[in-house]
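Task: sequence design from structure.
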């Protein structure tokens, strides 16, 4: 996710709320910084304030649409008039939320847009005796509850979504951590060790040398 909001406290509050739901979140406080991040990273959803300094939110939205990717835009604004909402959607925004708003509603809309940003996955992912319920944020293995941290949950979800394919450590860093993570860190390996320990025996996560990880 990318949160673009010039009100620093609000931007940080939105980012922290989404991180609690296991999203990897970057933050930009003006339109120019947002365009820089969009030029480097591929985001599933951009939570975009319309009234931004330096580069207006409308121009950021146009740039996202013109890029032709699968990024979805949730536009935020203090303007509640119907014509303002229509104008925002006409720019190519996928959804519109007026301020003030409840964070629980924002996250529900983000979840909905995420499902549209890539091929839809079932609400409950199952493989090799593991059951992951994204909505309830619960994991079970062979009917045993498994308590996971947010990052462990996010990593396991990516492995299950891959449906048996290999997922590289680089892809896991991109999808489960934010832009501040050191690309040379061993955090993926450490997280994988903890995840394997919590899932128990027999082991289900395999390491594919030089390629990544998979759940057969």
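Answer:
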């Amino acid at each position: 996710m990318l949160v673009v909001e010039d009100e620093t406290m609000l931007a940080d509050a939105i980012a922290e709320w989404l991180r609690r739901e296991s999203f990897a979140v970057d933050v930009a406080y003006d339109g120019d910084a947002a365009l820089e991040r969009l030029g480097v990273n591929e985001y599933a959803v951009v939570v975009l304030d319309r009234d931004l300094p330096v580069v207006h939110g409308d121009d950021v939205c146009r740039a996202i649409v013109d890029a032709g990717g699968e990024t979805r835009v949730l536009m935020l604004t203090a303007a509640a008039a119907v014509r303002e909402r229509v104008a925002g959607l006409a720019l190519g925004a996928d959804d519109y939320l007026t301020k003030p708003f409840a964070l629980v509603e924002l996250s529900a809309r983000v979840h909905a847009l995420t499902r549209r940003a890539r091929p839809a996955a079932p609400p409950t992912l199952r493989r090799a005796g593991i059951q992951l319920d994204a909505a309830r944020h619960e994991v079970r293995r062979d009917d045993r509850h498994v308590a996971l941290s947010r990052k462990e949950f996010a990593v396991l979800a990516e492995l299950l979504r891959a449906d048996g394919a290999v997922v590289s450590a680089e892809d896991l860093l991109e999808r489960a951590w934010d832009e501040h993570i050191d690309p040379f860190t061993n955090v993926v390996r450490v997280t994988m060790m903890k995840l394997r320990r919590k899932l128990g025996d027999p082991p289900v996560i395999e390491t594919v040398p030089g390629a990544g990880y998979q759940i057969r």
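The chain has a mean pLDDT of 86.
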